[in-house]
Specification:
The chain has about 120 residues and is mainly α. It contains five helices and no strands. The radius of gyration is 19 Å and the shape is elongated.
């Protein structure tokens, strides 16, 4: 779950960085560092995992000898199941992503910018 929290902090900060950009090129350039950082650090994002894990599961189901061609250890392949994907990966990572985005980014921005402002409409 911690990898999901850290990942979504970087993803949400990448989104916030795009708000400060003026052109499309600026927006693309602003997301490169945070997204590259979460990939390089090995953090987990639920949306990315919803692509990569089923991809690996389908390879296991339909062409398991492919794994031996790329040099993967076949002993690790036994633990790769749909149930393990949902229970051990997708659910904890999604919860971590929600905590990372809602608590560590959105709540911090709320505390910094909105808390304490008086209601101007009467």
């Amino acid at each position: 779950m911690a990898l999901g929290v850290l990942c979504n902090i970087l993803v949400c900060l990448a989104v916030w960085l795009t708000f400060s950009a003026r052109t499309t090129l600026d927006k693309i350039a602003s997301i490169i560092f945070p997204i590259t950082a979460f990939v390089a650090a090995g953090f987990e994002h639920s949306v990315a995992n919803m692509y990569f894990m089923p991809y690996a599961l389908f390879i296991k189901m339909f062409d398991p000898e492919f794994m031996s061609h790329v040099g993967a250890k076949l002993t690790n392949l036994d633990a790769l199941t749909w149930q393990a994907f949902f229970i051990n990966n997708l659910i904890p990572v999604t919860i971590g992503n929600i905590i990372g985005g809602a608590v560590f980014v959105a709540a911090v921005y709320w505390v910094i910018f909105l808390r304490g402002k008086k209601n101007t409409t009467s």
